[in-house]
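pinging the channel bc i need a second pair of eyes. not urgent but kinda urgent?? the chain im working w is below, pasted from the shared doc
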Amino acid sequence: MPLKLTLVSITVAAVLVLASPLGARAQPPARVYRVGILLTTPVSPNPPLDAFLQGMRNLGYVEGSNVVVEYRATDPDKLDRLPALAAELVNSKVDIIFALATGPAQAAKNATKAIPIVFVNANDPINTGLVASLARPGGNVTGLTNAGPDLSGKRLQFLREIRPEIGDIALLWNASNRTVARQVAETEVAARALKVQLHVVAIRGPNDLEGAFSAIIKARAGGLVVIADVLTSLHRERIVAWAARNRLPVISEFRNFAVSGALLSYGPSGPAAGRRAASFVDKILKGAKPADLPVEQPTAFELVINAKTAKALGVTIRPALLLQADEVIQ
């Protein structure tokens, strides 16, 4: 009798062992997505990119498990490498490309009409040809633009509030980058409304900076607004250092200017855009078409004040404005 029980047990165990592999093979393997990332800023530290990756993790995408990330990056002064890097991502058969800023987005779009592309921090995506319209992007590209409501005017208001006596303000921009031309026009309109004289100073490369500095001094400007793009961001420390020597408050769009010593930065929140972009990627990987996902304008804005710079300039910033700030650099 004991022998019979043992044989029955062995038979049942054998059936279970044989059945297990069949059951395992019946489960389809988990899909592993390949996400390409194209940028002209460092991979780390990079707040928008970090927020994007965290947003992907929050949505269930775990690098090394169900997603593989392919990075392609170049220096801001080597933008001619972008087409080759975009082609590399296409050839590596990525499922989607995440492009940080206008240049990477344009390079990606030129490299593929089939692979979906999600961008952040793109200037004027309609006039640059990235999308047909914000509501109906068309094609394989969508994302988040950094063009927000009256940001240029708001930056001038901050400068005027900090220095009410200012009558003349200089605006520095990269005239070789037509994607930011709209910001120049918006700032001119805002200056007229505030009854301040705006002196627009254009550069096309780093060799133009000394001449621009002389023009700003000649204009007797009491403040400097810098339109942020690849060129001005790359040379922001040189610009800010010159302004500090001439006791000139600088205001720009992105936090890295304030970190480098500008008095204040105000613009779209890079981390918020990165997190939101993750939801775009998630929807597309689950079957949505970029053409059907409207391009979004920023809804979260970041005010950063450099209190150390204010002290060096002898500028007093109202407590109420300090309380509005998302960050105060001491």
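so The chain is about 45% helix and 20% strand. and The first helix runs from residue 2 to 26. — does that match what u expected or am i reading it wrong
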